[in-house]
Amino acid sequence: MSTAPLHTEPDHLVITAPTLKSGMVWVEQCLGVSMAPRIGGQHVRLGTHNALLSLGEAFYLEVITIDPNADAPERPRWFGMDQLGKDAAPRLAHWVARTSDIAAAVAASPVSPGVIEPMSRGALDWLITIATDGALACEGVMPSLIQWLSQPHPASALPDRGCRLQQLILEHPAAQELQVAWKAIGLADARIVLKEGKQASLHAVVSTPHGERVLG
């Protein structure tokens, strides 16, 4: 059994939207940077598809929506997407953290990030935590955990549009419990700011060629 300490770090931001077009337009309006031409693909197992934008080395932004051309999955979709209304506004709903040992991280965390599920898209293969009901852990503030099984990291295939995450500002009533969970899984990043708040919220401060912009 490995005794190496767990190491977990931010991997990507998750933007949910009713359609890829509306999500991509919203990102462009927020950041002043186009996501066209779309780079992404289908998640056949869960009936979703996405578009990606680089936020630097080994980090990216994902717009994810229900794929209207896909069959409905046999289980709830991830990221709370089955509860997303057709008129819902695009938003920063969640984030995903990359870990060195997803099984050990799930076992160590006192706050459940979900159940480990195998996923694939094209040449990419990974393990990710998903709640059995598809809901977002702690309303999106507790990250899903991911362990990439394929190389290179998907961000390496994305064009550099000059965008970088500066801060991910999170609020939640159970902030202290979340801090304990993050320490247990080896998650410590100066860009992640967690505060106690009356309700859950997520905001990302991103530097762009047009200055700092905020996604929320």
TrEMBL record:
InterPro entries associated with the record: Glyas_Bleomycin-R_OHBP_Dase (IPR029068), Glyoxalase-like_dom (IPR025870)
Organism domain of life: Bacteria
Database matches in Pfam families: Glyoxalase_3 (PF13468)
Residue stretches making up the Glyoxalase-like domain: 11-184
Protein's name in the database: Glyoxalase-like domain-containing protein
Organism this protein belongs to: Herbaspirillum aquaticum
